[in-house]
Every structure is written in structure tokens, then in C-alpha cells.
Amino acid sequence: MDQSHIRNFSIIAHIDHGKSTLADRILQLTDTVSAREMRDQMLDSMELERERGITIKAQAVRVHWKGHELNLIDTPGHVDFTYEVSRSLQACEGALLVVDAAQGIEAQTLANAYLAIENNLEIVPVVNKIDLPQADPDGAAAEVADLIGDDAANVLRISAKTGQGVDAVLDAIVARIPAPAGEPDAPSRALIFDSSYDQYRGVVAFVRVVDGVFRPREHLRAMALGTRFEAQEIGYMSPSMRPVQELQAGEVGYVITGLKDVSELRVGDTLTAEKRAASAPLPGYKDVKPMVFAGLFPTESDDYPELRDALEKLKLNDAALFYEPETSQALGFGFRCGFLGLLHMEIVRERLEREFDLDLLVTAPNVAYRVKPLNEEWVEVHTPADLPDSFDEVEEPYIKASIIVPKEFVGQVMELCNDRRGKFDHLEYLSEQRVHLTYELPLAEIVLDYYDQLKSRTRGYASFDYDLAGFRPGNLARVDILVGGEPVDALSLILHRDFAYERGKALVEKLREEIPRQMFDVAIQAAVGARIIARETVKARRKDVLAKCYGGDITRKRKLLEKQKAGKKRMKQVGGVEVPQEAFLAVLNLNDVAKR
Amino acid sequence: MRAAARHLYIHLPFCASRCGYCDFVTVVGHGDLHGAYVDAILGELDLERHLLVPELDSVYLGGGTPTLTAPRELERLLAALPPAREVTVEANPETVTPSLAALLSRNRVNRVSIGAQSFNTVLLDVLDRRARPNDVRLALHRLRDAGIDNRSLDLIYGIPGQTPADLARDLDEALALEPEHLSAYELEAKPGTRFTHAHGAELLRQAGELEAYIEHVVERLTAAGYRWYETANFCRVPDLVRGRDLRARHNLGYWLGHDYLGLGVGAVSTIENRRWRNAPSLRRYLAAHARRERPERELETLSTHERATERVMLGLRLDEPLPLDGLGGMVDDAALERLTQRGLAVHRDGSVLLTPRGRLLGGGVTARLLA
């Protein structure tokens, strides 16, 4: 189709503001799927996505409306996938900015709206859920209009649930969003904005053709990574795969590559045809690096091979997932995994447990550190225990946090950010009631429980988003935990020196609660280098025996004993001390303890 | 099946009232059924007699309150039982009248176990016990007067509200009576029972303190010349009783893994690899007898592994070394080594013996040894 009749757009919305419902209505209204075929949230194909109401992997679907071809490019909805979102947005000329009429703008909406504006997208503001009794369409419209510098009268008001106003949305897409403006005759270039893995057909790339034409059987090259392959099939989704003979400039579709490894084709890369290759790739490719790390250990050590296979399979569909074998003296064999952020980690963990039926012990997450050991070159450290005792310098990643809260909670949020070594950046009123705050914070300070704390201190009203802001030097030290005199690698943590004493003490206290009494006194210590900074003792049990045991009791007592034995098996032996697995997660609730 | 069991247990469930902490099979009232019940017991004995050797090592009448059984019926039962070296009857103190003591004595009963529990009237009330401290004293004297010179007292410690001083007084009172044997049990408050509902909070409050009570019991009784031969059982050392071994032969049978036959409602038997429990319903027990059938039973087949586990679990409760041969490598050598180093166990000549501290931690020690 001629580019002037093509419109490519995304939907930007906070979780639960109705993105998926709106997408469903669009598919129905354009007869892309019949009402009978309609499942709610058609676009979210992974079980987990449907359940959590979030979109993990972006997809694109083509619909037809009044003589135009509209391509809806779905974007991942969460902060961890900012880079993927930015690539999806780059594939579009416009975006629907959907805001819940009762909730107003949230931090994620804001972040993604800014991303869209940076990408020069035409924004079509939409206030959704106007059918709700508590809806305030005027208030929400005013906020949105103010955000994008538009007139509130141009804000569409709809109910995706009932379908009210959705046709006007489609009309606005055609009328307001510009047509693509690539070069149809130039050497071909297509932006990869997503990929997935099909076990029979290999890696499938989702692309936006910018210039030229792509055809099946062509030899293609990914320009940044240099991967070469033959396009086995090209086509578009509507919503199932429809093969075509051509994808032209301006169109959105898929390329079946036959590649066996998703890491050979990265989001943001540019595809071009080998025989008439473009001279330069499309701008903006970035190698996304994991920033949050955690150890994943099978609860039963026999499950190690299963965990390895499962990670291999997940990695096929998730190029951002990083893992390497790790051996912990406390937890045995497992993997150190790297994630884009906390949600990414949570999703991986859940998929491993749900899709692969694995019982996992996940250590407290930590961030990546850059360290320059004495007289050596800079290295990156992914495990606290790997931080050398002495070094010239160490750097940690920082983020720029964006928080939106009702004004009465501003003090609470500021206090929390200050407690977490935050540096105040900016405060502005979005409306009479709502304030947008920005802070710079060390990523390490948010990986544990920052978000939970933020939610609880603002009674759930705060919304939060962040962007990575690079590495900065930190006054950091490794705090080791010793149980029964032996250091427990899985419990080491890297802390700012000013917090080392307080948090080391809190952790030791928490561990005293978590480690059951044994047959001897157990010392729990926190140490920086050779210096002990905190100590607690788990007192020995004095008695652990059943009062009576006669002929009628024997079976029951034996079963009790077997239960006790099974309980022991789930404990990890650290220096002769039995430590329950929960204790390894004690650090997760550390800040609660410190507050008490 | 080979006739091999040397130990016979008979359950007599009748009680005057139910004590809140008790979880045995008991029946309150139904005085009219004593005769029928004894008939049923004797019927079951006939059906299972082939499992017993002709001359038994021990007979044990437990309850319930065996001595509440109508004297005529109790006597009929005792007279019909096979001969045994040790015949024990459990008794509540208030039931031991001179005539009952005489009845037991003339029917070859040579050991009586008295459920004293405490000498503190407030604590007795907490336990719903009817007997008063003086009943215990009288009972012991009456038994000796009747020629029964192996008398055991049951004590309970860890009663809600019991202070360490209360416990010390109970132990002193018990020792003053010079019983041949003492059993001291920590009160077990079973979750969900009326008793736990009423006293759970107090027990939880006392938990730290209660943990040391067993040590007090062991120290006091051993200092007074009693042998701590099983976790909860003490008997006067032979030197003080002209060389007599006053350990309970019947219960030793359980702890040494011997076969035993149990008769009556809720009674358990273990014969080689089979263990069965009679259904706890008095009505159905009597009905089965009326049909000349075996009572309804729950049968359990014990694997070699389970039997060996039980041997270790029970054997480590005793103050004698447990020989490890024949236990099929059940015991984890590394764990045994660690426990030995920590002073909880002694490993000598292919046997294992727990030290006093090891016995106080016997549950955890056993779980580790069997890991």
C-alpha cells in the first residue's frame, strides 16, 4: 500500500489504564477478529502477561480502517523495558496516550509520553473509562493536555470497555498521525523493534520497514551485530501471521530468520538486504546491559540441570537475560543472573517456577559495581562477595527516579529518598493535587524494597519510574556475615560506609530471628574486613525431646521424626549450623528492621 | 504366624471423668458395660492367643482408669490372663482402696502405676484431676500393705502456672514417698484441644522457663538415687533395693523393639512387620465381639527401614548403648562424628549412647543421626 495510507502507532498507558482493552476494541471494530474469536487481551500472548495485566513482549498487529492500513505496535509497559519501548516508539509516527479518567497521569505514562515526544511522535490524547462512576474526565483531560501542550478539547473521551468513542479514536489516528515518510526506492532498511523465538522456525524479527522493500528468500544482514541470514518468510500479523511477497517502506511486519539464537538479532538493530545494502544503519542502537543481579539456586540440588535447561530456553526469547554458573559455599550450584530491572527479575523467576516447575531460592538482588582493585584495571562485579577487600575506587549505578504523588505525601517521599541516599532534583505541580518529583538515587537503594516502601508510605498513591543515569563513585564497603565463625558468601552485601554499621546490625538481628536454635550457641556476626561491627547469639536449645513414647505412640512419633528429618534437609549447612533458606532472604526486609 | 510376643497390653477405657490434657481413648460413664467389655477383651485374647508365648514377660493394664472397672469384672479379667513375670495395673490414687489393693495382689499384680501428676491442689485442678495429694500417699501405703512392692508414680511437669519452686516441691513430695519407680512427663498441650485453648497463652508465656524443667527433674531424681533409664522414666538404683532391677519390663519391651499384642479399644499391636490399631469406638468393639469377629483395625505394614528407624528412635531414649549392627547402615557416620565432638553422643564398640545432654536433645540428635 502507498505510504500515504499507512499509519503506524503505539498505545502508551499505565498498567490497568486500559491499553489492552482498547487494543481489543480496535481489533473488533475493524473486523480484524470476529467477536467470536475475541479473547480478552488478544495481544498479550504469554500466560503471565495476561495474568498480571502487563505486556512483556511487544507485538504488532495490522488493521484496516476506512481505506487505511493501521499498524498497532504494542509496547512493553514497564520501566525495565524502557529501551524496548523506545524502539517500539521509534517504529511509529504517532501514539495514543491513554489515561484513566479516575486515576489521571501516572509516572509510567509520563516517562513513556516523554519518550514519545523525544521520538517526535504525534500524540493523540485519550481519556479512558469515562463510564466509571468515579471518573473525572475533565480533570484527567486537563492533566493530559497540560502534559503534551495541547488543548483539552482535543482530548478524546472514551470507554474502551463499552466501545464508546473508539471509532473516533480510529478516525483521529488517520487524521492526526502523519504517514510514514521513508524512501521507497532507497536501499532497504528495517528497524527491529522486537523478536521472539519459535521452536520450529527459529528467531522471528518484528520490523518496521523504513526504506526500500523486503522480499522472501532475500539474503539479509543485521547491521550492528553483522548477523547474516536468509529471510525464510515475511509477512504481517492480523492478528495471526499472514505471509506476503513484499513489505514496503512504511509497513510493519515480521521476518522469519531461521536463526537459532535470539542473541544474534538484537532489538534496535537494522536489517538490510545484502545485495544492495544500506550504507548506514538506523540511529539509536544500544547494547542493553543487565543492571540487577541475583543468584538463582535450585532448592533441591538435584534440580541444577533442569534449571540450566530452563534458563537456556528462556534466554531464547529474552535476549536481555544474562546468566553464568555460580557456586556458593552456602547454597551450592546455581546461576548468577543479570536482569534489566526488578520486574524483569520477577518475571524470569515466575516463569522458571511456573513454566518449568522449578523450586528456586533467589538471593537478594544486587546491582553491578565497577571496581578498580589496587593497581589493576577496572572490572565489573556482579556478586558482593567478589568485591575485593581493598581497591582504589568503586562505582555504582545511579538512576533518575520520577515519582508522582498526591501533594500530602511529598514529605514522606522525600524522607524515603533521603534515607536511600537520594539527591533531590526537581519538584513540580502537575495539578492542584498532584506533584511530580525527581530524585537521583543509587540503583542499589531501590533494588530491595524501595517500591514497597514508596507504596506503603503513600497508601498506594505514588507511581514510580526510573531511568539509568550511569555509574558514579561511591564510598562503599563489603559487609560480610559470619555464622558460627564462618563467612557466608550468599549473605555478603555492599553498602555505603555510612550505613554499614546500622544495616549490618539490622541484618544480624534479622538473622537471629530466622536461624532456629541449635544444639549449641551460634554466633552471627557482621564484619567489614577483619573488623566485627555487630554480633548476636542464637542460644542453644536446652531440651528437644518428646516426653513420652509407648507402644501406642510409636507410629506417630516416627512420622514426626521423619518430618523433622525432611525439615533438616531443606536447611543449608553453613559451618555446621543449619540455616533455613528463608534466612538467605533476610536482607530483603532489612530496611524494615532498621526502621524498628 | 509364629507365637512370639512376650508382652501383652490391655486397654481399659473407663474413667469417672475426662481430664482436659488427656488424649487416650477413654469412656466416661457406661458402668453397665464393664462386664461386656471384659468379655470382649477375653474374646479378642482368644482370637490372638496364638501370637503370644505361653509364659509372658509382661502384662500391662492401661487406661482410661483400669481400677475404675467394676471389681468383679477386673478380677475376672486378671484371673483369665496368661501368667507373666511383671503384671502392671494403672491406677488413679483415689481408686486404691484396701480392698482394691488386695484384689490386685491376689490376682498376681506385682506392679502398680499411680497417676499422681502433682501434689499441688491448684495445679491438680488445672489438670482436672480428682485425687488430692493425700490420696497418693494413702494409695502407696495401701499397695505396700497388700504386698505390692513395685509402685510407680506418674508426675506431670510444665503445668500452666507451675513455677520452678512448685516443681521442686512436687519432686520433694514424690521422693518423700520413696516409690520404686517414677515417670515424669512434660505436659503436652495438643493443638486444637480444649485444654490448649484454655491454657495455650500461659504455656507460651512460660515457654522459656519450661525448657529447663526436664533438667531440674533429672538432676533432682538422680541426686536422690534414681536411675534415669529412659527419657521420662526413673527407678531406684539396684544398690538401694537389694539388687532389684526396677525398670518397667513392659515398657522396656517397646523401647527395645520387641513385639507386643494390644487388646481393647484403640489398642495397638506390633508383631514383626505388622502393626495394627483397634478402632477407638467402644460400641463397635463390643459389636465385633458379639459377631465373634476381630475388632475393626487400622493396619500398617512396616518396612525394614521404618523398623530400623524406630529402633534408633526408641533405643536412644535409654541409658544403655544402642548396638548399630543390624540397623542396616541407618546411622549417618558423619553426623555421629559431629555429635560426638559436640559431646552429645558416645560412639564405642559399634554402639552409640547419648550423653545426658544428648538425651535432653534426643529428638534433634536422632533426626540428625538418621539423616
Summed up, the helix count of chain A is 13
Helicity range of chain A: 10-25%
Q: CATH fold name of the largest domain in chain B, please? A: Transcription Regulator spoIIAA
Strand content of chain A: 25-35%
Q: Please, could you describe this protein's structure?
A:
The complex is a heterodimer of chains A (596) and B (371). Chain A has 13 helices and 34 strands. With 596 residues, chain A is an alpha+beta fold. The longest helix of chain A has 18 residues. The N and C termini of chain A lie far apart (65 Å). Chain B has two domains: 248 residues, 2-Layer Sandwich (Transcription Regulator spoIIAA); 66 residues, Arc Repressor Mutant, subunit A. Helices cover 39% and strands 22% of the residues of chain B. Chain B has a nine-stranded mixed β-sheet with strand order 9-10-8-7-6-5-4-1-11, sandwiched between helices. In chain B, strands 12-13-14 form a three-stranded antiparallel β-sheet, with no helix packed on it. Classes of the chains: A alpha+beta (596), B alpha/beta (371). At the A-B interface, helix 12 of A face helix 9, helix 11 and helix 14 of B.
